[in-house]
Amino acid sequence: MLNIVLFGPPGAGKGTQSAKIIESHSLIHIATGDLFRKHIGENTELGKLAKSFMDAGNLVPDEVVIGMVEDKIQENLDANGFIFDGFPRTVNQAEALDKMLERHGLAISGMVALEVPEDELKVRIKERAKTSGRIDDQDDEKINNRIQVYNRETSPVADYYRNQGKFTAINGVGSIESIYEEINSAITSLEV
Ligand code: AMP
Question: What is the pTM of this model?
Answer without folding.
Answer: 0.96
